[in-house]
Amino acid sequence: MSDPEEPKNFQEAWHHPDELKREKWREAIQKELRCMRLKGVWRVIERNKIPPSRRLIGNKRVFKVKRDGIYRARLVALGYSQIPGIDFFDNFAPVVNDVTFRSILTLMIVENWESMIVDVEKLSFMEILKKKFT
User: Fold this and answer.
1) Which partner for 13 in 7, 24, 45, 103 could form a disulfide, CB atoms 3.0-4.6 Å apart?
2) pLDDT: is 119 or 41 the higher one?
3) Integer Cα distance of 38 and 56 in angstroms
């Protein structure tokens, strides 16, 4: 269910009437684009420079205010317009399997391991482990 305070599109976020919220949405949008550029998954392309053998894949923005007050602005591909094997070869969803999650929780209890809550955002799990244990 969508919050009435959450923008439905880029224009609503970028030109939000509340100055504080407008700045938070702009920061979230810029953070998402910076991360996508760093990961090499997104770049601006001029329409006239797209080779005839390629086609554009549509996208949309999804805006969300998390329970902890963090503003998130995601740029997502419209997957229904993609053709497997042509537009993509792999897909990735950063979602943990419930069996894996329960197994880890069981190990934590049995082995008396410490736990911590981490807002992972765009980091890979290995990056977190490297920071923790180096």
Assistant:
1) 7
2) 41
3) 21
